[in-house]
Recover the amino acids of this structure.
């Protein structure tokens, strides 16, 4: 087996274990309970199943759970290792720092995608279960799941980078998630295009006919912008991590 | 600054480690200040009080941080972002970087994995190093249940796991009980004598280092103040007067008697009449003559200690030359 691959997988496995054993898992459990409660309650109301179901999953999971969860984990995954000094094992090992950074990123994407998809599934079942699961609702579920993955990729790359630039990454994350993404991203007009959420919503409105967005960007343009953003954020993060000192 | 050139053990003229005018500061705090040293193969002790710059030196040597000025060569190479060198160097930090919910085995396998080791060869190596440090029966337990001595041993095992040529052991004895300390000292000695690793080990306690090696570098306030054989350094230290505090009753009588001892330089009273400070030129002569004075004058001594015991005081002597 390639030696670099062995080093990389060792780091990814280590980080996944740290994420899963972290006390922050409580946030996810609360998020899971909240999603199930809201969607379960909504299913008891007299609602237009597909419109309300798609809107709820988009609003609760894509616009709320994904940025908040990636903020909590993304802004702390490296900082936690720095604080308890376990980063020494990584930095003093003969593994390229770029590879290390990518290992942290992959670990967070794997864990958060899996956990957020579990929340998506629980929310889906709690809402569509009582109202009847059909091919249209399954299609919404698959699209939302794919959007969860895209959101995890882009927000994780952002919050991991921020954690290298400031030790107060969580404060920045809270501001960004609530004020920037939540508020600016929902303003009318072109101003909303400065928020990541606009492009994710644009994709969702293209994919899911029960979600509409005024002023939506084109599907391919949204993909290109998000892809460019992920590549830029990860590249800048790798560069910062490579030159960072760990006293 | 005093300089006692040390001889190289292995006839190898290339220094294992060479620091030239190495400086590192953290904001306004100086970690290393024009630090110069040459370390050759074998076990070398870096001795200095807390905050002297030992850990800063180690962190530069393993590439965790880079110097602000000067140069450090480890086995002829710059350690910053040097993966080839990182593969040849092991590090045991002075701080606890262990995860309590991990077993000793998992910790070692992580380090092995990060060095590109896997499969049976890694499992075999884990068994070997746990045997070397004497943790073979504890390896499947959670680190959270380890004693301080065991935690130091598992860190030590982690540093030797990749079979590194050179080991940096930063305060490996700190916080351990006497029994663990004794066993760790034996392990560290065997790392060079039996396993063939070169070792640079730090401590703020000179006698601890003395049990592992005769070669030391004294570091104080970020500077090397002496290096060489411990015996030579002890001679240097002995050139300076030692101060001893004695507490008890009838101290004025004792003071008169002490002045008759040839090695006594001066005697003075401290805060009260029950406590005196004696300045002596030769500790052995003084302690040889002291019992007779005490018995003759029928004096009861409650306590007696040297104010030179702290390494800080010894270093101040050396720096003030």
């Amino acid at each position: 087996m390639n030696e670099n691959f062995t080093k990389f997988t060792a780091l990814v496995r280590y980080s996944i274990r740290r994420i899963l054993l972290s006390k922050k898992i409580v946030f996810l459990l609360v998020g899971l309970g909240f999603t199930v409660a809201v969607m379960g309650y909504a299913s008891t109301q007299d609602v237009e199943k597909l419109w309300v179901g798609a809107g709820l999953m988009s609003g609760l999971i894509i616009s709320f759970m994904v940025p908040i969860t990636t903020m909590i984990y993304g802004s702390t995954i490296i900082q936690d290792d720095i604080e308890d000094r376990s980063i020494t094992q990584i930095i003093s090992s003969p593994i390229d720092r770029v590879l290390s950074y990518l290992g942290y990123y992959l670990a967070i994407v794997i864990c958060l995608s899996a956990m957020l998809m579990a929340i998506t599934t629980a929310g889906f079942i709690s809402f569509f279960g009582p109202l009847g699961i059909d091919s249209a609702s399954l299609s919404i579920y698959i699209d939302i799941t794919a959007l969860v993955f895209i959101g995890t990729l882009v927000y994780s790359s952002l919050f991991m980078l921020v954690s290298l630039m400031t030790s107060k990454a969580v404060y920045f994350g809270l501001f960004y998630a609530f004020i920037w993404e939540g508020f600016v991203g929902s303003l009318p007009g072109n101003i909303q295009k400065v928020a990541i959420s606009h492009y994710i919503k644009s994709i969702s409105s293209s994919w899911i006919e029960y979600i509409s967005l005024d002023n939506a960007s084109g599907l391919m343009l949204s993909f290109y912008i998000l892809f460019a953003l992920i590549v830029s954020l990860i590249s800048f993060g790798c560069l910062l991590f490579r030159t960072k000192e760990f006293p | 600054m005093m300089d006692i050139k040390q001889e190289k053990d292995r006839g190898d003229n290339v220094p294992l480690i060479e620091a030239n005018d190495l400086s590192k500061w953290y904001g306004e705090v100086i970690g290393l200040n024009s630090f110069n040293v040459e370390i050759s193969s074998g076990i070398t002790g870096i001795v200095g009080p807390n905050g002297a710059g030992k850990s800063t030196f180690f962190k530069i040597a393993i590439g965790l941080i880079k110097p602000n000025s000067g140069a450090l060569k480890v086995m002829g190479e710059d350690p910053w972002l040097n993966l080839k060198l990182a593969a040849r160097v092991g590090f045991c930090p002075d701080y606890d970087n262990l995860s309590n919910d991990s077993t000793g085995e998992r910790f070692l396998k992580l380090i092995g994995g990060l060095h590109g080791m896997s499969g049976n060869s890694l499992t075999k190596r884990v068994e070997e190093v746990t045997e070397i440090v004497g943790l073979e029966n504890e390896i499947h337990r959670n680190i959270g249940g380890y004693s301080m001595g065991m935690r130091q041993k598992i860190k030590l095992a982690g540093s030797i796991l990749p079979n590194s040529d050179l080991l940096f052991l930063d305060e490996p004895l700190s916080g351990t009980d006497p029994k663990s300390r004794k066993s760790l000292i034996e392990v560290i000695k065997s790392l060079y004598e039996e396993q063939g690793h070169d070792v640079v080990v730090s401590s703020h306690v000179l006698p601890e280092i003395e049990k592992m090696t005769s070669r030391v570098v004294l570091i104080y306030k970020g500077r090397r103040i002496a290096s060489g054989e411990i015996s030579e350094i002890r001679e240097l230290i002995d050139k300076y007067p030692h101060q001893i505090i004695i507490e008890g009753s009838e101290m004025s009588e004792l003071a008169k008697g002490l002045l008759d001892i040839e090695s006594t330089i001066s005697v003075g009273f401290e805060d009260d009449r029950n406590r005196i400070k004696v300045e002596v030129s030769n500790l052995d002569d003084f302690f040889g003559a002291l019992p007779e004075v005490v018995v003759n004058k029928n004096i009861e001594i409650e306590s007696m200690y040297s104010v030179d015991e702290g390494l800080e005081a010894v270093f101040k002597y050396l720096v003030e030359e």
